[in-house]
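USER:
I would value a second opinion on how I read folds in token form. Give me a protein, with the fold worked out from its sequence. Write it directly below this note and I will take it from there.

ASSISTANT:
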Amino acid sequence: MKEPGVEKPTLVTGGAEGEVQEVVSRGVEAVYVHEGNQEKVLLCDEGDSAAAEKRISIRADLPVSIALQYAEGVQVENRFISLYQIESDNAKTLTWSWCSD
């Protein structure tokens, strides 16, 4: 699944036979609050394979907002990519998974 606002990875050559491989051109991280502390989880880093599955799980208090943004050090005017807001009356914690494919 492609996230809105995430640019297509840069194409680079590599491999023993000079094949073309897609790699991540800009790192992406998730930012959320758990037990009163801001947490950051790196989803994918510059140079990671774009074809490889990327999966994370986080534990957070509900309700929670999870922001996807370009990682620190990425030179863009606005680091924000998207925001997920999750609310529930039936649970106190959340396990959220994000998968890049």
The chain has a mean pLDDT of 75. Strands lie at 10-13, 20-23, 28-34, 37-44, 55-61, 64-70, 80-86, 93-99. The longest strand covers residues 37-44. The chain is about 0% helix and 50% strand.
